[in-house]
Amino acid sequence: MIHRTFAGFILMAGGLLLVACGHSAQLAASPLPIIDVHFHATGAEEQGPPPLAMCVSGESLPGWDQRRPWPDPFIQWLKEPACSEPVWSPKTDDEMMRRSLEVLRRYNITALTSGAGEGILERWHAAEPTRVVPTLYFNLAEPHPSVETLRQWFKEGRYKALAEVTNQYGGIEPNDPAFEPYLALAEELDVPVGIHIGTGPPGAPYLGFEKYRARMHSPLALEEVLVKHPRLRVYVMHAAWPMLDDMLAVMWAHPQVYVDTGVIIYALPKAEFYRYLQRLVEAGFGQRVMFGSDQMVWPEVVPKAIQLIEEAPFLTAAQKRDILYNNAARFLRMDGAPVK
Predict the structure, then answer these.
(1) Please, which pLDDT band fits residue 4 given cuts at 50, 70 and 90?
(2) How far is 294 from 114, CA to CA, in rounded Å?
(3) What is the 3-state secondary structure (H, E, C) of the chain?
(4) Domain enclosing residue 254, as ranges
């Protein structure tokens, strides 16, 4: 299965958490907790042949000379990074799990984690049950469980959220009738939903996602869903980048909507990510922005992403803690978790 996030890209072509989470500019013995609402348990080859490089806050993307298939320069871009200190992906599945769990432990993180690959999520959860919180990856364009199967899984506690929902990669809008019964179930059972809206891999339609369209980056497509299911707990993954004005309009009109910082926090140039985040916060929505790394095959991007929040010059100390922990604790209704 190809993972569908900005780095699905790197391929060719009730109380939810059980424990508190973690924090890191204090790399000290007892870091403050952090909640990562967008994390993935994957194999080493999930995004393409390892190792692959990620330039955190990289400054440029490759262009396309159509005399070559788009996946060629794209993979070359990941194999020959332009930055001086790239993060390289692990070469084996065991190394992937070891390095990922080490990051969670070291930085005191609890992560909402969806899985790609047979049994991978279950293995990670068994190894670190208080930090890896299982969530269900879901795409209507791929084989997917029935509503009744989902009902059973959620009631059993097998999964704690419906996330990541990647229907956008199959050209399916949030208000598609086929998705409606799943949204109704999530509202009925009070299950959080994290839906991919916004950035996918550059050149996604030419990487095997033929129905992916840029117009579907807009969170305005969520409006009818939100009105029909006002009690639905939903967060927009990637904060619908780059559709900032649309995102602000939706958050203004629908005060139940939260966003996460997944992938844009490390894959965009630093100035662009800061511009986007600053506008969200200065518009008054700082208490509805949640930290999400969208870690896929680069575990060490997570502390770098945390550092970007901690060093943001436009955020107060209280706003940083809200983004790294308090907002997600409130959204997930963690019993006893501080809100301020």
Answers:
(1) very low
(2) 10
(3) CCCCCCCCCCCCCCCCCCCCCCCCCCCCCCCCCEEEEEEEECCCCCCCCCCCEECCCCCCCCCCCCCCCCHHHHHHHHHCCCCCCCEECCCCHHHHHHHHHHHHHHCCEEEEEEECCCCHHHHHHHHCCCCEEEEEEECCCCCCCCHHHHHHHHHHCCCCCEEEECHHHHCCCCCCCCCHHHHHHHHHHCCCEEEECCCCCCCHHHCCCCCCCHHHHCHHHHHHHHHHCCCCCEEEEHHHCCCHHHHHHHHHHCCCCEEECCCHHHHCCHHHHHHHHHHHHHHHHHHHEECCCCECCCCCHHHHHHHHHHCCCCCCHHHHHHHHHHHHHHHCCCCCCCCC
(4) 34-55+62-331
Is the pLDDT at 119 greater than 60, yes or no? yes
- Asked if the bond preceding 51 is cis, omega within 30° of 0, the reply is yes
Residue 125: inside a domain, yes or no?
yes
- Identify whether 191 is part of a domain: yes
pLDDT at 198: 87
Q: Is the pLDDT of residue 17 over 90?
A: no
Question: Has residue 154 been placed in a domain?
Answer: yes
Distance between CA atoms of residues 122 and 159, nearest Å: 10
Whose tokens are 């990647």? That residue is 166
CATH number of the structural domain spanning residue 111? 3.20.20.140
Instruction: Return the pLDDT at 335.
Output: 64
Q: Which residue shows structure tokens 């967008």? A: 38
Is position 336 within any domain?
A: no
So what's the pLDDT on residue 62? 85
Give the model confidence (pLDDT) of 186-222 as tens digits: 999 999 999 999 888 899 999 999 999 999 999 999 9
Contacts for 116 with CB less than 8 Å, ≥ 6 apart: 1, 3, 40, 41, 42, 43, 46, 137
How many distinct structural domains can be found in the chain? 1
